[in-house]
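Hey, weird one. I pasted the DHA2 family efflux MFS transporter permease subunit sequence into the form twice and got a warning about non-standard characters only the second time. First submission, copied straight from the form history:
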Amino acid sequence: MTNTEPAMGQGFKKGPLLAVLMAGVFVAILNQTLLATALPHIMADLEINENTAQWLTTVFMLVNGVMIPVTAFLIGKFSTRALFLTAMSLFAAGTIVCALAPGFPVLILGRIIQASGAGIMMPLTQTIFFVIFPIEKRGQAMGLFGLVISFAPAIGPTLSGWIVEQYPWRALFYIVIPIAILDLIFAYFFLKNVTKQTFPKLDVFSVILSTLGFGGILYGASSAGSMGWGSTAVIVSIALGVVSLVFFIRRQFQLKEPLLEFKVFKYGIFALSTVLSVIVFISMIGSATILPIYMQNMHGFTAFESGLMLLPGAIVMGIMNPVTGRVFDAIGARWLVIVGLSLVTVTTFQFAFLTATTSFTYLTVMHAIRMLGVSMVMMPVTTAGINQLPEHLIPHGAAMSNTMRQVSGSIGTALLVTVMTTTALNPEQYGVEGLIHGVNMSFMVAGVLSGIGVVLGFFIKRKPPAENQQEPAPADNK
C-alpha cells in the first residue's frame, strides 16, 4: 500500500510526473475532437452515410462516459503506475487499430478501445493532482490541468480541418500514435505510485446498472439532436438510463464499498460546485457545437474558418487557466465564479442577435471574451468542490465531477440543438434569417442558464471551512 509521504511531494520530482500525466490527457482529449471536421472525408472513403459516421464520435463519448464512474474503483484497486500505463496502452492500441482499420466495423472497434483508456485518464489525473498538491496550491495545479483540457478540444477542429485538406483522414491517427507511445515510455520511467490502494470489492451488478444508466442517458441525449426528443429510440434509451440510474444510486447507498460514492453530495460546496460546472460546461460545449453550424450552414464560412474562429478563445482560456488558478488560491472561488459567469452570460446574450451579415471579427472577439469567463469558472469551481472532500473521497469526487460533465455536455448540446431546430422559422418564407432565428433562441436559453449560475455563485464560500477539512477524517474508520 502506498504511504502518504510521496503524495506530499517527497521522494520524487513533480515536474516529470505532471508532464507525463498532462501529455496523456491532452492527446486523449485532442483525439476526441479531431474527427469533428473529418467525418465527410471518412464517409466518402468508407462509403457510409452521416448517421453511421456519427457513431465514431458517439461511441467514443458513450464508452468514455461509462468508464469514468468505474475509475474510482480502479484507483483504489490498482497502483497509480499500473492504472495509467494500462489506460495509455489501451488508448495507443486503439489508435493503431483506427489508423489501420480496413473498414468501418474495425474503425468503431478502435474507437471503443481508445475510449476505454481515455475514460480512465481524466479522473485518474485529476485525483493525482489533488493528492500531490497541498490544499493551498491546488488552484494553481488545477489551473495547469485546465490549460490542457480546454486547449486540446478547441484546437482539434482547426487542426483536423487543415490536416484532412492536405492528407488522408488516417493521418489524424498516425500523428497521435507516436505521441501516445512516447508518453507511455516516459510514464514507465517517471510515473510514481501516489494514490492509496484500498483494494475495494467490485460489485458487478453496480457496473451493469452504471453502464445502462449513464450509457442510456448519453446515447439518448446524443441521438436527440438528429432523431428528435420524441422518437421512440430516444425515449426508450433515456427511460432505461434513468430507471437504471435510480437503482444504481439506491444500491450505492446500500453497499459498504460503493462503485461510485454519492455521499460526496452531502458536502454542500461540492454539490453546488457540480451544478455550476455543469452550467458552464453546457454553455461552453453548446457554443462550440452551435457556432460552427451557424457559420458553415447559414453564413457561408468553411469548416477550417469556423474552427479558426474558435482558436483565439482557446488560446485565451489556455493562458488564463493557470492565472485564475493562482487567483483562486489567493481569494477563493466566489468572485471568480460571479465575474466569470457574468462575462459568459453577457457574451451569450450577444450571440442571441446574430444575422446573416455578422462579421467574423465580432464572432471571434465575443467568443474569446466568453472563453475568458469560462476559464474563471471551470477549474476554480471544480477545485473548490473537491477541496471540501476528505482524501478517501477525492477519487469518487473526481469521478463524479467528470461523469456529470460528460452527461451534461451530451444532454446540454442535444437540448440546445433541439431548441435551434424547433424554433427556426420556415426558410422558404424567411430565408436564412429564419434558420438563424433558431440559433439566436438556443443562445437565449444558454444565456438564461448562465444567469442562474451567476446567482448560485453568491452561495459559494470564500474558502472551505477548516472544520470541513478535518471533520470527515473519522469516516475512514467506518
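That's the output from the first submission. The warning seems to come from a hidden character in my clipboard, not from the data itself. Residues 1-10, 463-478 have pLDDT under 50 and may be disordered.
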